[in-house]
Design goal:
Layout (H helix, E strand, L loop, with lengths): L2 H8 L1 E4 L5 H21 L9 H14 L1 H11 L3 H7 L2 H9 L5 E12 L18 H4 L6 E6 L10 E3 L12 E2 L4 E2 L11 E3 L6 E5 L4 E3 L8 E10 L3 H5 L23 H7 L2
Antiparallel strand pairs: 1-8, 2-10, 3-8, 3-10, 4-7, 4-9, 5-6
Helix pairs in contact: 2-3, 2-4, 3-4
């Protein structure tokens, strides 16, 4: 079956080997380099090479200096490699193939680094049943592209879908500490199908597809990118005035760091 037919039937499709693994590895490494700046500041040493050594150091930062962890986590959302990728010609062509005549990014892409060791609440590492359209409220053909930056199997929390759920309309939700979830009575656990992926695969799904993340039971970090797209040419989106529920985006009124910078610091920066 063609990928478009599968997408229309199930509401999601996995595209194996869609991206050069070296490209997604570079994005992950760029994000990790941001965190390493905070490792140095907090004198945290990676005790071993490889992904687990980095993960253990990140867990140490989370526990030792949560504010520095959050600062780096926010900065990592703005790495250049991720932003280049999500608007690349390859992604644009894929979106057009899926029927988006005028693709636009709905909201800034997000790089996730999920682990129960990096979470204050469960929803920060294990998302419950939901539909992305509930928070997007965009075009009817809005698409989400989910990019694994590492191999993700069920033990690492593979993304899970209810096939065909995108055709059932917008499901009722209940407010929770994460955002809003679809109750188990509507989205029972046995209805979900996990999608195991390799770094370099892409998972594409309708914003109406009911999905959730699996449970990462390992000591490793589940790295991924999540980006949402609307179609600026879709008639109902145009008729509704192209709503954008993420409109609140403004700077702080006061200085985050009081009395910074000094003239001496600026002179040193430009020396």
């Amino acid at each position: 079956m063609d990928i478009i037919d599968t997408y229309k039937r199930d509401g999601f499709v996995c595209l194996p080997n869609a991206v050069d693994p070296a490209e997604v590895n570079a994005i992950r490494q760029e994000a990790q380099a941001v965190f390493r700046q905070m490792f140095r500041k907090n004198r945290i040493v990676e005790q071993s090479h490889g992904e687990q050594g980095f993960a253990d150091a990140l867990y140490a930062l989370f526990n030792a200096n949560y504010q520095d962890f959050i600062g780096a986590a926010r900065a990592a959302q703005h790495i250049l490699g991720m932003h280049r990728f999500v608007v690349s010609e390859q992604i644009t062509q894929l979106l057009q193939r899926l029927g988006l005549a005028m693709p636009i990014v709905c909201v800034k892409p997000i790089i996730y680094f999920n682990s129960r060791h990096l979470a204050k609440i469960e929803g920060h590492y294990k998302t419950p049943s939901h539909q992305d359209w509930r928070s997007m409220q965009g075009s009817l053909n809005s698409v989400v592209i989910w990019v694994p930056l590492v191999d993700i199997d069920v033990n690492l929390g593979a993304i899970e879908f209810i096939p065909g759920s995108h055709l059932q309309g917008l499901a009722p939700t209940e407010k929770d500490t994460w955002y809003r979830h679809i109750p188990n009575s509507i989205a029972p656990a046995e209805a979900f199908v996990p999608v195991e992926v390799k770094a370099g695969d892409l998972v594409v799904f309708s914003a109406f597809a009911v999905h959730r993340s699996g449970n990462n039971v390992t000591q490793a970090i589940r790295w991924s990118i999540h980006v949402r797209y609307n179609d600026a040419a879709e008639s109902t989106f145009v008729d509704r005035g192209m709503p954008h529920p993420y409109a609140v985006y403004r700077p702080e009124q006061e200085l985050v760091t009081p009395d910074f910078p000094t003239p001496e610091q600026l002179k040193a920066a430009f020396a």
